[in-house]
């Protein structure tokens, strides 16, 4: 006789909503997201807690399976974001005694898999000449069981560190606005729509907070603690695979390159150099280095900006540290960026990034730093110099630093780009200086150095030095070298009294300007102190030793180093003034250029100049730029 179940024994089955948010699902509380889909998409619980409300994607239904005892639930159907705000997962999965209970050891069980649509945004790039590319489309599926243990550990990391907890919305918005206002012209890897969305990536927001905090005026050395907090959280989210969208991950890693607080002599993964390498490899994996992949991308403009940012940073770090390039030209076939790649093509920052990127492609032609490169010729050197002239000429057509009355127009972002232009001019003569008359080199680099320092001075007047990145320390170091060389020599605009020691007062003045600016930067970037102390020491030794200071830096007196055209033929630099198409108010050194003739220098004009001997003096290995 069949037993009749009583109402007390009957289990009541409650229907469960299939539209819930991730946080309510994780907390096992009732969610009313389905009632708010049309009015903002935020459930009542998340609204009360001021948390980001994300809809939970339902796992695909599977065929009913009978009597599968001891089967461990597979978490492959949940993204790592499902773990936000959860309690710590059961440790049983990571204990030695429980690892053997993975699904592959259950007889007859089907192996679950992770799968993602094969689009250009999330499919790994396989080169056309790889054997793998001949096998047709490759599967994007990976065994889910492989990630079970990792996901549990990652969820514990996120919970224990609180990495997914964002600061107040007002602070997040303020820090993001600093990025778009002061850094976007150099690192345009994030769009406004990326942070305007209610479901904005937590990893990206933490990375943006890092960028914004780095841009804040430091109140003390403890200001780094705030930046480190955002850095540590973003780093934890990155390594715990919190974000799954490849392009969003790459945007975040690009911003993590801003974390540079240790000198380059310190070996650590917590540096801009390490994050840059990781970002470049990840970009290669996505295929951002190949133009053929862009036609199918959902955000081709943003992807192109990211790729060119990485390219530019790679070249700057290469010439700064003297380390190998990570992006080779033969592997990088992208079209140059244009203003149409930006959300707002009319924004001046778009044009500034386009011009800056073009300048970095010219800098790349000077790499690697080999002063005795046997393949280099004077013709090749002059071709690079011609490109520099074309770049600055084109820049002045679009962007102006003087008005019609000859008054300087202040634009911090433009001034920063111009400092990189003059840094490239000095670097050019470091690499190709042997093809040109030493006195010509001394004059051009001294004028370029003066322009750099005066532009930085204009920024300092307005307290805008604060917004420069660590790599600018290297630019300042480069600017100091021609000044140190010229320090003990009078130029044609300076009259030296008989009792004078021969110290160039203008070089003293400009060096002091530079040293004062660098001293300010040590508060935010402690590594700048090493560069500061080295320049100070050189300055003191030159003043103390006078003429004997030549021996300290490998300089030669004219009598000991005759530059007669009979002994050596130097290449002529045509139209030197085209390197400096600015009014003379940009620098007090500009008068030096007006004493030059178009194609050659008057005899005896530079006979009082000591050979700068760039190959000896401008030795980057002797400096610790600490960017």
Automatic annotation (TrEMBL):
Listed Gene3D superfamilies: Zn(2)-C6 fungal-type DNA-binding domain
GO biological process, one term: DNA-templated transcription
PANTHER family: FARA-RELATED, TRANSCRIPTION FACTOR, PUTATIVE-RELATED
GO molecular function annotations of the record: DNA binding; DNA-binding transcription factor activity, RNA polymerase II-specific; zinc ion binding
Superkingdom of this protein's organism: Eukaryota
PROSITE patterns per UniProt: ZN2_CY6_FUNGAL_1, ZN2_CY6_FUNGAL_2
Sequence ranges of Polar residues compositional bias: 72-93
Species the sequence originates in: Penicillium cosmopolitanum
UniProt domain Zn(2)-C6 fungal-type: residue ranges: 20-55
Protein name: Zn(2)-C6 fungal-type domain-containing protein
Keyword Nuclease tagged: no
Sequence segments annotated as region (Disordered): 56-96
Lineage of the species this protein comes from: Eukaryota, Fungi, Dikarya, Ascomycota, Pezizomycotina
Keyword vocabulary terms for this entry: DNA-binding, Metal-binding, Nucleus, Transcription, Transcription regulation, Zinc
């Amino acid at each position: 006789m069949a037993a009749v179940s009583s109402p007390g024994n009957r289990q009541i089955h409650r229907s469960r909503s299939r539209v819930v948010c991730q946080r309510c699902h994780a907390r096992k509380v009732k969610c009313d997201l389905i009632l708010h889909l049309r009015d903002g998409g935020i459930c009542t619980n998340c609204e009360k807690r001021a948390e980001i409300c994300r809809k939970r994607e339902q796992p695909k239904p599977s065929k009913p399976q009978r009597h599968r005892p001891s089967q461990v639930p597979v978490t492959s159907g949940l993204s790592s974001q499902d773990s936000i705000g959860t309690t710590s997962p059961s440790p049983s999965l990571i204990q030695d005694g429980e690892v053997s209970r993975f699904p592959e050891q259950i007889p007859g069980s089907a192996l679950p898999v992770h799968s993602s649509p094969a689009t250009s945004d999330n499919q790994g790039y396989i080169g056309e000449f790889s054997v793998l590319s001949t096998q047709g489309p490759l599967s994007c599926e990976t065994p889910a069981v492989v990630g079970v243990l990792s996901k549990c550990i990652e969820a514990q990391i996120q919970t224990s560190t609180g990495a997914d907890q964002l600061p107040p919305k007002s602070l997040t918005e303020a820090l993001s606005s600093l990025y778009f206002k002061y850094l976007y012209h150099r690192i345009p890897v994030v769009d406004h729509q990326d942070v305007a969305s209610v479901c904005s990536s937590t990893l990206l927001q933490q990375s943006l907070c890092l960028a914004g905090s780095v841009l804040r005026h430091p109140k003390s050395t403890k200001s780094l603690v705030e930046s480190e907090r955002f850095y540590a959280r973003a780093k934890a989210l990155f390594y715990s695979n919190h974000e799954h969208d490849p392009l969003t991950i790459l945007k975040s890693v690009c911003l993590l390159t801003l974390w540079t607080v240790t000198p380059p002599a310190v070996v650590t993964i917590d540096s801009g150099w390490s994050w840059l390498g990781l970002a470049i490899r990840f970009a290669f994996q996505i295929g951002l280095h190949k133009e053929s992949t862009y036609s199918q991308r959902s955000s081709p403009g943003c992807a192109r900006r990211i790729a060119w940012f990485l390219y530019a940073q790679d070249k700057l770090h290469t010439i700064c540290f003297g380390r190998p390039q990570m992006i080779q030209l033969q592997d990088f076939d992208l079209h140059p960026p244009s203003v149409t790649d930006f959300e707002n093509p009319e924004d001046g920052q778009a044009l500034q990034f386009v011009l800056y990127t073009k300048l970095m492609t010219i800098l790349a032609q000077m790499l690697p730093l080999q002063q005795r490169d046997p393949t280099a010729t004077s013709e090749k050197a002059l071709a690079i110099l011609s490109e520099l002239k074309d770049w600055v000429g084109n820049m002045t057509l679009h962007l102006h630093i003087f008005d019609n009355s000859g008054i300087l127009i202040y634009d911090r972002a433009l001034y920063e780009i111009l400092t990189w232009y003059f840094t490239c001019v000095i670097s050019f003569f470091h690499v190709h200086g042997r093809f040109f008359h030493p006195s010509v080199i001394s004059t051009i680099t001294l004028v370029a150095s003066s322009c750099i320092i005066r532009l930085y001075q204009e920024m300092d007047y307005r307290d805008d030095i604060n917004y420069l990145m660590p790599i600018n320390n290297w630019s300042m170091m480069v600017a100091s070298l021609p000044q140190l060389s010229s320090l003990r020599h009078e130029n044609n605009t300076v009259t030296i009294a008989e009792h004078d020691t021969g110290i160039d007062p203008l070089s003293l003045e400009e060096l002091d300007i530079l040293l004062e600016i660098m001293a300010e930067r040590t508060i935010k970037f402690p590594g700048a102190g090493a560069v500061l102390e080295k320049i100070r020491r050189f300055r003191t030794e030159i003043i103390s030793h006078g003429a004997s200071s030549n021996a300290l830096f490998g300089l030669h007196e004219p009598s000991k180093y005759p530059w007669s055209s009979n002994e050596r033929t130097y290449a002529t630099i045509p139209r030197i003034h085209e390197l400096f198409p600015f009014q003379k108010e940009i620098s007090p050194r500009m008068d030096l250029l007006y004493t030059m003739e178009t194609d050659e220098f008057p005899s005896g004009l530079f006979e009082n100049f000591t050979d700068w001997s760039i190959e000896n003096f401008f030795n980057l290995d002797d400096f610790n730029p600490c960017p």
